[in-house]
């Protein structure tokens, strides 16, 4: 039996349909193979070697791709994650698989001690998790998964079951994490923002005394080159922040590190729009949520837009002055995803992503994670320059929302070519496409499938409509 036949046979067990619309068949099959290999039976790991558990925003992106293959499995991906939600509303960034040895990943469950240290915050007792969070892509993912097969979704009561969890998640971020008092959510650890090693964190982290090197063992270096990973000094600071947060019972108000990040908040706004759509599907009104999303967009512009840089910047809440951090990262381009941005700001973002600092379409094929002209730029080191596929997907979507179809088409083509040639790498050199990090990465494969199956222009509207149209016309095309 050849490989395609084997995949088709295996599909009946999971169930994944292998009958895509006319797309590059070999790329489709290879992307499916990655998701099959990373499937655990209830969720998808980002990487069997480097990341052997369930990660929060990874699962959201993976569900977005899985919806084209098996809407049921995409729903299961999100339901598994939400089953580990804490009573205070937070969705933990890792849900640990108890069958994985403790030394396979650090920080492991015995470091986080969620069921004991997180008791006051309502951590679940039956599953071990981390105590920090990741960007809130989940409501957006849930809405897109529903739209892939509305009949199945309604028959299973999918949205009715996930809506309360998603609403609680947003309440947590909008209330417990409004540490700057201006309406935006703050992250209390670099790992929460998802772009772990960004130079944006260098100044806030410089105030953190690192944990002693002897107090932890870096399992990541068993699977990745040291020159591609965070330095030992940075990792020691990550561990110190996580230790202090844990020992404080995962309370948010006293966090030593607190940053308002543009991508984190843009994804919260996009998910607020999606949650309004979900409310409407369930027979309620989404007007209040759309209005909240628009207020958050205004706050995002007021707090984080920097006209001189032509992009959004991070704000350090704990530096004594609450100042903007003068570093250009891809995070500051992600708000292009939002339909209610003032037109001049959207135009400036497009100019910036195509200009000398990011070089998209000129010197780079995918947007780098950090300023090409910045002193800290490194084309291979984790989030300090390499291009990532999830941020490229978000920017591709943003370009379409704001009517930049030609640029979006070029980015889509570059994304698919690079995902294919890199073996669905975790991230790549932005100039050459050389693969870095883990091969066979979950969200790379999933978002490849999304771009293969989604017709350009579906599910988005031009700017200025006051809505966020993610209606995915035509239902499931897988």
Description:
Residues 51-444 form the Mannosylglycerate hydrolase MGH1-like glycoside hydrolase domain. This is Mannosylglycerate hydrolase MGH1-like glycoside hydrolase domain-containing protein. Keywords: Glycosidase, Hydrolase. The structure is a single chain. The chain is mainly alpha-helical. It has 18 helices and ten strands. The chain has helices at 3-11, 25-37, 56-66, 71-82, 109-112, 114-117, 138-148, 150-156, 158-176, 190-193, 202-205, 232-247, 262-281, 287-304, 343-354, 389-401, 405-421, 442-453; strands at 54-55, 94-95, 186-187, 259-260, 305-306, 311-312, 315-316, 387-388, 427-428, 435-436. The strands form four sheets. The chain has a three-stranded antiparallel beta sheet with strand order 3-4-7. A three-stranded antiparallel beta sheet has the order 8-9-10. The protein starts with a helix and ends in a 25-residue tail after the last helix. Residues 1-21 and 457-478 have low confidence and may be disordered.
């Amino acid at each position: 039996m050849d490989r395609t036949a084997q995949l088709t046979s295996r599909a009946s067990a999971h169930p994944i349909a292998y009958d895509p619309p006319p797309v590059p068949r070999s790329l489709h099959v290879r992307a499916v193979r990655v998701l099959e290999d990373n499937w655990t039976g209830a969720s998808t790991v980002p990487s069997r070697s480097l990341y052997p558990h369930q990660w929060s925003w990874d699962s959201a992106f993976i569900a977005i791709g899985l919806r084209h293959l098996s809407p049921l499995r995409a729903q299961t991906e999100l339901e598994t994650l939400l089953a580990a939600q804490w009573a205070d509303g937070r969705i933990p960034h890792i849900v640990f698989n108890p069958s994985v040895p403790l030394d396979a990943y650090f920080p492991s469950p015995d470091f986080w001690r969620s069921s004991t240290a997180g008791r006051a915050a309502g951590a679940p007792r039956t599953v071990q998790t981390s105590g920090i969070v990741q960007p809130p892509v989940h409501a957006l993912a849930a809405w897109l998964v529903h739209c892939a097969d509305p009949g199945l979704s309604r028959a299973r009561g999918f949205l009715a079951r996930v809506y309360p969890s998603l609403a609680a998640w947003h309440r947590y971020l909008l209330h417990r994490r409004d540490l700057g008092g201006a309406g935006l959510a703050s992250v209390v650890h670099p790992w929460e923002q998802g772009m772990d090693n960004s130079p944006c964190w260098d100044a806030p982290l410089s105030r953190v005394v690192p944990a002693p090197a002897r107090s932890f063992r870096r399992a990541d270096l068993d699977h990745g080159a040291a020159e591609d990973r965070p330095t030992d000094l940075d990792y020691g600071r990550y561990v110190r922040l996580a230790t202090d947060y844990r020992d404080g019972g995962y309370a948010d108000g006293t966090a030593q590190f607190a940053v308002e990040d543009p991508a984190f908040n843009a994804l919260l706004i996009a998910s607020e729009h999606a949650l309004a759509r979900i409310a409407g599907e369930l027979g309620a009104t989404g007007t209040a949520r759309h209005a909240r999303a628009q207020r958050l967009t205004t706050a995002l512009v007021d707090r984080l837009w920097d006209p001189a840089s032509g992009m959004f910047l991070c704000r350090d809440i704990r530096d004594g002055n609450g100042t903007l951090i003068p570093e250009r990262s891809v995070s500051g381009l992600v708000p292009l995803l939002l339909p209610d941005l003032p037109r001049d700001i959207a135009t400036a973002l497009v100019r910036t992503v195509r200009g000398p600092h990011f070089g998209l379409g000129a010197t780079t094929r995918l947007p780098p994670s950090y300023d090409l002209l910045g002193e800290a730029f490194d084309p291979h080191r984790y989030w300090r320059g390499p291009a990532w596929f999830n941020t490229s997907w978000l920017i591709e979507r943003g370009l379409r929302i704001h009517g930049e179809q030609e640029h979006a088409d070029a980015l889509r083509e570059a994304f698919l070519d690079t995902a294919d040639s890199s073996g669905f790498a975790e991230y790549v050199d932005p100039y050459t496409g050389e693969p870095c990090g883990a091969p066979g990465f979950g969200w790379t494969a999933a978002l490849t499938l999304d771009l293969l199956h989604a017709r350009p222009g579906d599910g988005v509207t031009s700017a200025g409509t006051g809505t966020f149209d993610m209606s995915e016309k035509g239902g499931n095309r897988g």
